[in-house]
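Q: DNA-binding response regulator, please. Structure only.
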Amino acid sequence: MIADDEVLLRAGIARLLQDAGMTVVAETGDAEEAVELTAAHTPDVAILDVQMPPSLTDDGLRAAIRIRREHPDTTVLVLSQFLEEQYPLDLIGDDAEGVGYLLKTRVADVPSFVESVRRVASGGSALDPDVVALMVGRRRRDNPLDALTPRERDVLSLMAEGKSNHGIARSLEVTPAAVEKHITGLFGKLGLGDEPLQHRRVMAVLALLRSR
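A: Structure for DNA-binding response regulator:
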C-alpha cells in the first residue's frame, strides 16, 4: 500500500515496485484513508509520506504510527523530505522491527530502495544514512555509545541502516569475520550478551536511537 499525495511520485514508486515483482494492493493521497486501506487489505508493508492531507503537516507520520499500533501484521516504511531526528524516533518507539524511515531522495536509487522495502516487509529495519549520521553526531553526555570504538560505531550505524553483516563488510571494505568481531564487541559493551542474535541487533539499534 502506497500513500503519498504527490501523484507522480506515488505512481513512480508503484511502477518500480511492480517491476521488482511486488503487488501494490492500494494507493491513496490521504493519511486517514491510508489507515482504512491498511485495515481493508492487510498489506505486507505500508509506504507513507510524512506530510500528507488532510492537514499537510505530519499526518502521514501519525498514520504510520497508528498502523504500527493497530495493524501489527503490516510493516511500515515512511518517506520524508525532512532530515529530522524526532520523526524516526516517534515512528520507531520501542520496536525497531518491521519499520523504516528514508529520505525521499533515496527512491532514485532503485535497487537500494527496493532492497529497503523488502527488508522492512520481512521484519527488518531501514534508517536513512543521513538520519543515522545526524543521530550519531549529536550524542548526549554519559552516553553508553561512548564506550564503543570508532569502528564499532561505524558498524552500529550501518546496522541501523538495515545492512547485513556482509553488507557492512562491503561498506567498510573489511572481512565479514572482522564485522562479526566488532559486533560481538559492541554487543558486550552495550550489555546485550545473552539475547538471541536478532533481538540483540534490534536492541543495539534502539540504543543508538536513544543516544541523542
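A: Brief note, in case it's useful. The beta strands are 2-3, 27-28, 45-49, 75-80, 99-103, 125-127.
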